[in-house]
Amino acid sequence: MRISLLDFANYLHQNSAFLHSFQIARRRQRDPSPDHQSQMYISCGEIESARLAFDELLQPSVFLWNAMIRAYAWNGPFGHAVELYQRMLDIGIEPNKFTFPFVLKACSALEALADGILIHEHAKKVGLELDVFVSTALLDMYLKCGCLEDAHEVLCKMPQKDVAWNA
Questions:
Q1: Which residue has the higher pLDDT, 118 or 14?
Q2: What is the DSSP string of 23-56?
Q3: Which is nearest to 47 in space by CA: 12, 82, 73, 71?
Q4: Handedness of CA 24, 28, 29, 34 (dihedral sign)
Q5: Closest among 95, 108, 112 to 136, alpha carbons compared
Q6: Helix, strand, or coil here: 127?
Q7: Between 80 and 1, whose confidence is greater?
Q8: How confident is the model at residue 119 (pLDDT cuts 50, 70, 90)?
Q9: Residue 154 near residue 142 (C-beta atoms within 8 A)
Q10: What are the angstrom distances between the C-alpha of 17 and each of 14, 21, 72, 108?
């Protein structure tokens, strides 16, 4: 019997909680880590389950922080993406060039200009303001918040303006 990749993905999505319980019950020699569980849940769209596994981790990687922030920025609640970003900073995890576009997307959805400005300042501080993805996310955030002058300033500074037209 052959199954398609789509059928398998649907099966995983529908049974992710069962699979997690099964993995724990079996207590195989290589138990899945909360890191892997979070990634599995995120890929299945089970954001709250991913968050529970994420919160079990003592030191999540920047990759996993970004994955959780991205999951909230795309699926909501958008405020959770901003809260995770702030928590990341509070415990000393340095955001990277992927973190900023994700959290700025959440700010755009929330029209959270004050948060967006603080995030913009942080991107400047760490030298990522001119990264094409960061600057495009900044442009989008300022436009959605109705700050045309700030958006124009970001656009004028962008090294690659051709990719910004989607914003």
A1: 118
A2: HHHHT-SSPPPHHHHHHHHHHTT-HHHHHHHHHH
A3: 71
A4: negative
A5: 108
A6: coil
A7: 80
A8: very high
A9: yes
A10: 8, 6, 19, 32
> Tokens 């929330």 sit at which residue?
110
Written as one letter, the residue type at 106 is A
Query: Fold for domain 34-40+50-166?
Result: 1.25.40
| Residue reference for tokens 């069962």 | 18
Averaged pLDDT for residues 81-93: 97
Distance of CA 80 to the CA centre of its chain: 10
Give whichever of 1-5, 42-46, 98-102, 160-164 has the largest mean pLDDT: 98-102
Question: How open is the CA angle 36-68-70, to the nearest 5 degrees?
Answer: 125
Confidence (pLDDT) at 26: 45
Q: What angle do CA 63, 142, 70 make, to 5 degrees?
A: 20
Mean pLDDT calculated for residue range 106-110: 97
AA identity, residue 117: I
